[in-house]
Amino acid sequence: MSRQDIPEGYAVIQLADNQWYPVRVERFYSDAYPDGLLNLYPIRLDEQEQHFSRRKEAVAYCQSDAALWEDLERRRYERKTVESNVYPERCIHYQEIIQDITGYPPMVDRFYDGVSVYVPGYHCASCGSYHPHVVKEALTIEDALEACAEQVYAVNEQCTLTGMVRDLTLVTPL
Ligand SMILES: [Zn+2]
What we know:
This protein is α+β, with helices and mostly antiparallel strands. It has helices spanning 55-82, 88-102, 141-171, and strands at residues 10-14, 20-28, 37-42, 44-45, 48-49, 107-111, 114-119, 122-123, 130-131, 134-138. The N and C termini lie far apart (77 Å).
């Protein structure tokens, strides 16, 4: 971004007082305004509408305001992925499914931009064979756990079915 670029969602306007005002721009669409309606919000600081005598100062203000919001958004996103306590009861539910079937709790790795859940390979109680590990990545712990739990559960369903068919074969005289 060059020094004179106005970030997306911002504008600078010059009013009758000859001052330049940095504003946030939002576009709304509705039945009454199918082409969209622009709303301009002056940027206030301590109840004062920010204004500058020179255009480039107003543009610079837009840039720093945009950077601030970007930073806030990033932190919010980080908190969401790292703490991810939005649905703790969902996480526990999925962890229990995985542990019930595999015998081990899944391992959770947190990254800057997501979460990886690792389910170690296990000897299956239903079919007696060894099932390889499962790894799923997602933005949040609950989503990664859900993906793992779904796969482990699906494999287990298949195994239980196979086990039932085998038992059936054993008890049914050929
Ligand atoms: Zn199995």
